[in-house]
Amino acid sequence: MSTELSKFDFQQGFNRETTQYAEGQRWYDGNYVRFRAGRPQNMRGYETRSTTTFDGSARALITWTDSTVKSRAIFGTPDKLYEHDGDQIYDITPIQTIATLTDCFGTSSGATRVCCSDAAHGRAVGDYVYFTSTATFNNVSLSGNVYPIVSVESNNVFTISVTDAANATGSDTGSATFNYYIPTGGSVAAAGVGYTAAKYNAADPTSVGISKISWTQSNTLVTVSCAAAHNGAANDTVLFIPSNNSIVAATVGGNLILTKASLNGVAVGGPEFTIVSVASTQLIFNVDTAASAVDGNITASNMTARIYPQVAGSIAAPYRAWNEPASASASGLVVKLAQWSLDNWGEDIIANRSGSNIFYFDSDASTTPARAVSVTTSPVSVNSIIVSPNDRHLIALGANEYSPSATVSGTFNPMLVRWADQDDRTNWVPSISSTAGEVVLTDGTEIVGAVRSKNAINIWTDNSLWLMEFAGPPFTFRFQQAGTNCGLLSTHSGVDYNGVTYWMGYNNFYRFTGQVEVLPCTVRRYIFDDINTSYYDKIYAGINSEFREIIWLYCSSGQTECDKYVIFNPEDNYWVYGEMIFTTFADKEVFGNTITTGVTASGNNIYNNEPPEVFTGNGETLTSYVESGDFDVADGNALMFMDRVIPDFDLSGGKIKMEIVTKEYPEQPVADAITKEFDIYNTTQKVDFRARGRQAKVRVSCGSNNASWRWGSIRLGLQGDGGR
Exposed, middle or buried by CB within 10 Å (0-12, 13-18, 19+), for 131? Predict the structure, then answer.
């Protein structure tokens, strides 16, 4: 008896809320696929836009067209700010300070380290500097190059690393100009700090001055003598805070450097240490490396020990109690991810890196590349920015409060919304002649991000949604709380799509259509179980208008950089997910295709995403596939014999692979299942095979590099095969 052909179709989108058998005749899993007219197809790939890589992973990206109709992009990393002009990548990081000095360099013969002298430089390891107006000396040329600082020897001296070793020991007697970049920011948020990091309302740390630090040669134990009695105990954690923010000066035995500190070979400063034992005025702790110098001690009167009690059930590390003042961040206890926020100011760009002031990039500047410059009259500490539409107010979210005596450096308030005068990014002083002002939001601990929508700016705290609407004089803006328990996960995890705002919250996806709604999601459990919760702040949302998609990039479990995506199509109402290397995402309206930044083995780069006819990942094969649930081949009551498959595909550029797996029972081990694999070409009309089972699943994947495929349907030849 010949088998009868049975047609199987599957519901669009991925469904992962139950078991693979329970999902049945639906798509269950996949990667690099989307759906068109209900049918899965592979996504196009990506290719680099520039041969130049950049430092750090991008945390924000904006594209725009300038007055000459030139397509441009700006993106920011924890290290730097960059511009892409369509061809090249340029470093446009703002310069914080400039110093012209003499007799400021020293070399040692055969060494690639150069000592740089600048009194009270205030720099840290990882900060950047470049030099101008300096000649070559001892075979070392510094002019025009940008260098990261590799060590801080004192508050007056730091070192850089150069390519060519010095051919002599000595000092440079000429002059040079030091151009210091704004300090680098955190590439990750420090674990164990901030709200909920420790026991609720846990005890505040205690601080005590230090008189002496002692060591023993070849021993890892370090003894700190305090200026007064302390309340520390064994297993508490101690962090040392310098009064000059760089180094504790010493003349006996060597120097104690607070950042990546070293005391006679003992790494001592900067990180936290677990206390081993205590006396009334002494703290004893272990360091990683034994002392290399003879027994000795060092005076440290310009340093403070901050002691954190061990909290039951918590990690032994510095934390900030829930109500500890924000000034704790100045001590280095709170290290947040350095987020950039970028927005248009006409054809120019407003930029902010969280914790810094605001910067301005002039797209018409004659210098190539033009650098972003500081808006010196803006608040000195801002968490993010946005520009209001139509009325054009520059808005700071989380900022220093206005004070007549401290217009830029008043008390920092993470719940403050503060704005400059209309059409004037430089005037932040409220007055009769100015529309500048500020409002403190409630329901939350900090403002996380904001998005422009059709009638208002949507502002999220970590717990609520607020609407900010232009009202005109005398209040300029009015504020309305639109929802609670719907906070935003990261600065860039919300977007506006056709007047509806979509965002990722702590356990759900949401949208605002006039009211806050939980967005139904067929992969919600899978996604939120997969996210690395330590890196919520790296989640990045974007729009792909070509395919009517909203995409969220995130770090999966065990990963520290974005490696996964989840997509929602609001027009066709389906979800898909998969793997991607991207950290930011910008829509196609400027460059003709979406633009992304990402990390590969060759470094950080900017990409054309999904350009026409490209189905590889920068030349490498992309793993695209889609897999169904375990569907019953008949009614599931009897075993069925299968002898052929008739595929239906739209295929170009090679082949695809089809896999059919049959089972007798849903929980049957994979090793006991029957698996049949076939190569499918444009010319393939049918494939003969032999298998039996009650359930089956289908998997289709890309079988060759740069192939484009689209699934149509499938028919299987079936015949009853008994009940055993």
Answer: buried
pLDDT, tens digit (0-9, with 9 covering 90-100), for 460-496: 999 999 999 999 888 899 999 999 999 999 999 999 9
Q: CB of 488 within 8 A of CB of 397?
A: no
Q: Is the CATH number of domain 4-44+623-720 2.60.120?
A: yes
Highest CATH level, class, for 95-181: mainly beta
**Regarding predicted confidence, which is higher, 417 or 313?**
417
Alpha-carbon torsion, ordered 682, 684, 686, 689, to 10 deg: -120
Exposed / middle / buried, residue 706 (Cβ in 10 Å: 0-12, 13-18, 19+): middle
DSSP letter, residue 672: G
Count CB neighbours of 271 within 10 A.
17
Reply yes or no on whether the pLDDT at 80 is more than 60: yes
Q: Smallest Cα–Cα separation from 408: which of 378, 436, 438, 435?
A: 378
Return the closest-CA partner of residue 203 out of 229, 226, 232. Answer: 232
**Distance separating alpha carbons of residues 388 and 452, to the nearest angstrom:** 7
Residue 524 contacts by C-beta under 8 Å, 6 or more apart in sequence?
A: 17, 508, 509
Say whether pTM exceeds 0.85: no
CA–CA dist 257, 136 (Å, integer): 30
How far lies 718's CA from each of 4, 155, 435, 699, 723, in Å?
Answer: 5, 80, 75, 19, 15
Tokens of 670: 């994979």
- Give the domain ranges of the chain: 4-44+623-720, 95-181, 206-308
- Based on its alpha-carbon atoms, the radius of gyration of the chain, rounded to whole angstroms, reads 30
Mean pLDDT of 454-464: 95
| Residue range 112-154, pLDDT digits in tens | 889 999 988 989 989 999 998 777 889 998 887 899 999 888 8
Q: Please give the single-letter amino acid code of residue 228.
A: A
> 714: which residues sit within 8 A by CB, 6+ positions away?
7, 8, 645, 646, 647, 648, 698
Residue for token pair 């018409």: 364
CATH code matching the domain that covers 206-308, chosen among 2.170.120.30, 2.40.30.20, 3.30.470.10, 1.20.58.480: 2.40.30.20
Beta strands in 168-271 (DSSP E): 170-172, 175-181, 206-215, 221-226, 237-242, 247-248, 256-257
Query: Is residue 69 classed exposed, middle or buried when 0-12, 13-18 and 19+ CB atoms within 10 A define those classes?
Result: exposed
The answer to whether 95-181 and 206-308 have equal CATH topology is: yes
For residue 263, the cross-strand partners are 266
* Separation between Cα atoms, residue 292 and residue 124, nearest integer Å: 25
Q: Are 65 and 51 in contact (CB under 8 A)?
A: no
